[in-house]
């Protein structure tokens, strides 16, 4: 039962992030406590873009040449963070499952996401089908969203 609730919570969060009604905002409109938490965690971030999603603040940024994302509460607490990873870093069990389920598709991009210590992977597929997939860190399929 706990696993099911966790999966539902992760799906809700990821789904919310993927289809959020986020609105671009200027850095000056982000609460100081949120900016301070972000700057402390990512002092070398560049190309920083903020969005408001519900009551939370989402930030997209680069560390080196790698795209990252993080979500903060208005109090500056981290809700989730993630980064793009090379396709070759995708756990073998997930890659094998994708090849088995979607033999006519290719993996376009992979995002590693940490939500309250729970790791998930968001995988973009090109081909048949064009879709976005979510998996748990231990290779369990969460959901598919057609692109």
What would you say this structure looks like, in words?
- The chain has 147 residues and is α+β, with helices and mostly antiparallel strands.
- It has one domain: Nuclear Transport Factor 2, Chain: A.
- It starts with a helix and ends with a strand.
- 20% of the residues are buried.
- About 4% of the residues have low confidence.
- InterPro entries: PepSY-like.
Largest sheet features: 9 strands, antiparallel
Total E-strand runs? 9
First-residue to last-residue Cα separation: 30 Å
- Assembly of the depicted chains: single chain
CATH architecture: Roll
Question: What's this, in brief?
Answer:
With 147 residues, this protein is an alpha+beta fold. 25% of the residues lie in helices and 46% in strands.
Features:
single chain; alpha+beta; Nuclear Transport Factor 2, Chain: A; nine-stranded antiparallel beta sheet; 9 strands; 46% strand; elongated
Helices and strands in order:
Blueprint: H1 2-18, E1 23-25, H2 32-41, E2 46-53, E3 56-63, E4 66-72, E5 78-85, H3 92-101, E6 105-115, E7 118-127, E8 131-136, E9 141-146
Antiparallel strand pairs: 1-2, 2-3, 3-4, 4-5, 5-6, 6-7, 7-8, 8-9
